[in-house]
Amino acid sequence: MKKLIVRSVGIVALLSYIVGCTDPSQLQTAEAKAAPSHTPKPEAKVNNINALIPAGWHILEPVLGEKAIAKGDLNKDGISDLATVIEKDTVKDEASPRSLLLAFGGKNNTYTLSIIAKNVILRADEGGVWGDPFESITINRGSVLVSDYGGSNWRWYNKYRFRYQDKDWFLIGYTSGSYFTGATTIDQADEDDINYLTGQFIERRTDEQGHTTTKKGTQRKKPLIRLKEFNPENLQ
Predict the structure, then answer these.
(1) What secondary structure, in 3-state letters, does 162-223 show?
(2) Which helix (H) or strand (E) holds 115?
(3) In angstroms, what CA-CA distances link 170 with 89, 117, 149?
(4) pLDDT band for position 49 (cuts 50, 70, 90)
(5) Prediction pTM value
(6) 143 to 134, 137, 164: CA distances (angstroms)
(7) What's the rounded Cα separation, in Å, for the pair 84 and 203?
(8) Under a CB-based contact definition with an 8 Å cutoff, are residues 69 and 75 in contact?
(9) Radius of gyration of the chain from Cα atoms?
(10) pLDDT tens digit string along 175-221?
């Protein structure tokens, strides 16, 4: 449903920067070539949130004047951290790539870049007839929740939950659903919800007569998916 062997390491890093496939290690190499003074190294502390954003990118505003930013404590140090969606400036003849940017808060209102992750945020033209599929980014229960929604008569939605643990970011929960607007509502959507930490899942299905059944269970736990390796097309 959704959404890239180059010989030179330098070219790989720069290409990753251009298409928004940047993690912190790539960001250091790319910025040395493309924007040496604009984006700090991952360990650098900055007072201005905009200083975390690579040159040629901006914070997404899904609603005019409202930026896609969420704040909350993500690493359990009692200091508010930052989760935001960034988008590459205008790309000719195609929708701009987007990335998820996460930063840790520090003393004196400073921020330290943690990761810029590709593949999490859909582009503006990937929502079908519905339009831009980006729905929200929030921080709750100490984790980052990213939601998207799209389709036409058949609607679909996804929710991804990421948490910082063991000095890395991991996908710990996933919800996906779909429903036909002419016969059912979102409350009757066929939905699958999985908690990767526990293996517990909930499966909901609605038949043609509108009768909804729910199944709960526990599946075998698998190694958690790292955010830097996340690709929604590989989820089951």
Answers:
(1) EEEECCEEEEEEEEEEEEECCCCCHHHCEEEEEECCCCEEEEEEECCCCCEEEEEEECCCCC
(2) strand 111-117
(3) 28, 11, 22
(4) confident
(5) 0.81
(6) 18, 11, 7
(7) 30
(8) no
(9) 19
(10) 999 999 988 899 999 999 999 999 999 999 999 888 999 999 999 99
Residue type, 205: R
Q: Can you give 44-70 as a three-state secondary structure string?
A: CEECCHHHHCCCCEEECCCECCECCEE
Q: How many Å apart are CA 191 and CA 178, to the nearest integer?
A: 7
Q: What angle do CA 72, 76, 80 make, to 5 degrees?
A: 30
SS3 category, 160? strand
Q: How many CB atoms are located within 10 Å of the residue 159 CB?
A: 18
Helix (H) or strand (E) holding 116: strand 111-117
Three-class SS of residue 224? coil
Instruction: Say which range, 14-23, 84-93, 225-234, has the weakest mean pLDDT.
Output: 14-23
76-119 pLDDT, tens digit per residue, is 999 999 999 999 998 888 999 999 999 999 998 899 999 999 99
